[in-house]
């Protein structure tokens, strides 16, 4: 009898919670997105700065994808995964930057509830996918340097496709799914003191205790941040040992040159990502977190194509070949 009473109390409690959540979701249409409104004098300069960074991101990452598609010399496992990285950089920033730019010029700084939740899911998915893809790229470099004669056999196209599909699938189930099933109703005032909506910020807006959500975020970050980082570290330790054993100074220089771009991207991305997602809620700082998120969600995606192309002879060579082809075709059109 007592157990039946307890069960009925739980059912009533759960029903009330669900009703409150449904009512909450149905009444929230938009939230205030603070962004940089605390510094109104900086909004116009920031608009032009972020517009330029966003255009560099779009142009650079799109150029990498096009170069890989049309130049056979770049159709290797390394550049296959670089295309995935370029795609997620474009998708991530497109979910964030246009609304950020609009609010920099708007007098009413708001974001719809649906777009806010979409930004949260997308930032989690793209962040997790980038970590895993960066670890796969480190593994690819390890196989290329330590097993050069068996490289194409080990990293064949079937394996590459399976790794890519696995990266996106794991990212989805490790980031989006847990948040979907633990999402809580938001409490008023509906103010997002950030530049876009992401999980660590929403934790401060939930109406109930967020211990479970914080724990799941740390667990998810451990799986999508720490484990890939461990794989990257182990891969580069093995690469370092292999490079040190090389007798040719030119060979060592080439190996380090191939890995330097990837290491730079990993260092920038993981430094900011771990700070944002692997710390307790008590260490939250609105202004500091805006700068951190700005770096890995807006600036870093624009830096990636520059880092991978400026010192990369293969990419520069492919770009020259494409430009030469365009020049020749234009001359033929003029002559005809």
Describe this structure in words.
It is found in: Cell membrane. GO terms for molecular function: G protein-coupled receptor activity; olfactory receptor activity. The structure is a single chain. With 336 residues, the protein is mainly α. It has a single domain, classed as Rhopdopsin 7-helix transmembrane proteins. It is built from eleven helices and three strands; from the N terminus they run H-E-H-H-E-H-H-H-E-H-H-H-H-H. The protein has a three-stranded mixed β-sheet with strand order 2-1-3. It starts with a helix and ends with a helix. 33% of the residues are buried.
Explain briefly what this protein structure is:
By secondary structure, the protein is an all-alpha fold. It has helices at residues 2-27, 43-70, 77-105, 113-146, 151-154, 157-182, 199-202, 211-244, 249-277, 286-310, 313-335; strands spanning 30-33, 110-112, 191-192. Helices cover 78% and strands 3% of the residues.
């Amino acid at each position: 009898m007592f157990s039946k009473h307890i069960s009925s109390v739980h059912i009533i409690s759960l029903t009330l919670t669900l009703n409150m959540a449904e009512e909450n979701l149905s009444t929230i249409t938009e939230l205030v997105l603070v962004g940089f409104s605390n510094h109104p004098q900086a909004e116009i300069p920031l608009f032009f700065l972020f517009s330029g960074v966003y255009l560099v991101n779009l142009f650079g990452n799109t150029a990498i994808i096009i170069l890989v598609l049309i130049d056979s010399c770049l159709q290797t496992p390394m550049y296959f995964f670089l295309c995935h990285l370029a795609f997620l950089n474009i998708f991530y920033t497109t979910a964030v930057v246009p609304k950020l730019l609009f609010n920099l010029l708007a007098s009413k700084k708001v974001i719809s509830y649906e777009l806010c939740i979409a930004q949260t899911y997308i930032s989690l998915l793209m962040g997790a996918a980038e970590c895993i893809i960066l670890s796969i790229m480190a593994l690819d470099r390890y196989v290329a340097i330590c097993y050069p004669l068996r490289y194409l056999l080990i990293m064949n196209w079937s394996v590459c496709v399976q790794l890519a599909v696995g990266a996106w699938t794991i990212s989805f189930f490790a980031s989006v799914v847990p948040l979907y099933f633990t999402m809580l109703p938001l409490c008023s005032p509906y103010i997002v003191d950030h530049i876009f909506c992401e999980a660590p910020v929403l934790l401060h807006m939930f109406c109930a205790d967020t211990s479970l959500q914080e724990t799941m975020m740390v667990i998810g970050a451990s799986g999508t941040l720490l484990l890939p980082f461990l794989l990257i570290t182990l891969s580069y330790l093995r690469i370092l040992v292999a490079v040190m054993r090389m007798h040719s100074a030119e060979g060592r220089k080439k190996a380090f040159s191939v890995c330097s771009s990837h290491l730079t991207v990993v260092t920038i991305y993981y430094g900011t990502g771990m700070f944002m997602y692997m710390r307790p809620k008590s260490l939250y700082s609105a202004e500091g977190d805006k700068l951190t998120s700005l770096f890995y969600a807006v600036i870093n995606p624009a830096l990636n194509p520059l880092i991978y192309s400026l010192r990369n002879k293969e990419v520069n060579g492919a770009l020259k070949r494409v430009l030469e082809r365009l020049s020749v075709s234009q001359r033929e059109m003029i002559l005809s």
